[in-house]
Write a structure and sequence with these properties.
This protein has one domain. Helices cover about 0% and strands about 30% of the residues. It has one helix and nine strands; from the N terminus they run βββαββββββ. Strands 3-2-1-7-8-9 form a six-stranded mixed beta sheet, with no helix packed on it. It has a three-stranded antiparallel beta sheet with strand order 4-5-6, with no helix packed on it.
């Protein structure tokens, strides 16, 4: 995941990636509302928080139309886009969140896997293609990362696969 330090958002973001790199991307409730081909990266991407490589110009770019926290499938208060591409080894994801009030962005430096109360963006990779289990990756505006495995029916979603 690529974090863009100058960007943030006041919404929780949920994005489903239905298949591995080169596959089909779906967004929204049930993850089957729209399908889009994810283009292969046209150039190498440096993970540095700056989205300026040619690969990002040809990436799949989607406007995110819903938040699920704190709202439930409501229109987000700030415009946010997700950019997706891939290479031989990586699925590459970048977010752009356009916040008119950056002083209100909530983010703290803290230990990995502890971003509760902060603003954040993330992706859910449904690599099993069963809409019941998925890998989750989240990041706050300062680059603090959280990851886990979602599993339907587990208390707390079964989220912490680091332990």
């Amino acid at each position: 995941m690529i974090f863009l330090p100058e960007l943030a958002m006041a919404v929780f973001l949920l994005v489903f990636l239905q298949a591995a790199a080169g596959g089909v991307f779906a967004q929204g409730e049930g993850a089957a509302t729209e399908a889009h081909a994810v283009p292969r990266a046209a150039s190498e991407v440096v993970v540095d928080g700056v989205v300026n490589e040619p690969a990002w110009q040809d990436a799949l770019i989607l406007e995110l139309e819903y938040e699920v926290r704190p709202g439930e499938n409501t229109k987000p208060p700030v415009r946010t886009t997700v950019h997706i591409t891939y290479d031989d080894r990586h699925v590459l994801v970048a977010f752009r969140a356009y916040d008119d009030e950056p002083a209100k962005i909530r983010a703290r430096y803290r230990d990995r896997d502890h971003i509760g109360g902060d603003d954040w963006v993330g992706i859910v990779l449904d690599t099993f293609n069963d809409e019941r289990r998925a890998y989750e990756f989240w990041v706050n505006p300062l680059g603090v990362q959280t990851d886990g495995i979602y599993s339907e029916g587990m208390v707390g979603g079964g989220r912490n696969f680091d332990e």
